[in-house]
């Protein structure tokens, strides 16, 4: 499969490395990421040659800066242009479900998914990592849930999965 948002490789037989590849933008998660993430993990789930998946990221400072805020602002702007609150709520729900599908594809993958983290892991990146079966981080990794700072709920997976992971 060809990918814009990811580099796909097989470092060992049976191991698929899925590398987020937007280092100049802090590996922020744009429309290509969300579309291809779901496709990559669904394809890996069906591929008999793949026995495990390692989710990594290119670059040195960021594992991922989270959701591409410029793109998110544009999408939220379109939601707010709806005529009434009912249409706004429906459009917002549709957008959230579309963003949740790729995260759920990771969580639902029948192969073990290992998150290998270095550097900054911000906002939506924690949603993605929360969907992994196992997470390993380097000593320079740091984590922050930034959605609350911009008035959003961390509803792509953090609220549902993170408390179990941290035991709280």
From TrEMBL:
Source taxon at top rank: Eukaryota
MF terms in GO: isomerase activity
Stored Pfam families: ECH_1
InterPro entries, per database record: ClpP/crotonase-like_dom_sf, Ech1-like, Enoyl-CoA_hyd/isom_CS, Enoyl-CoA_hydra/iso
Family: Belongs to the enoyl-CoA hydratase/isomerase family.
Name under which the protein is recorded: Enoyl-CoA hydratase
The species this protein was found in: Oikopleura dioica
Higher taxonomy: Eukaryota, Metazoa, Chordata, Tunicata, Appendicularia
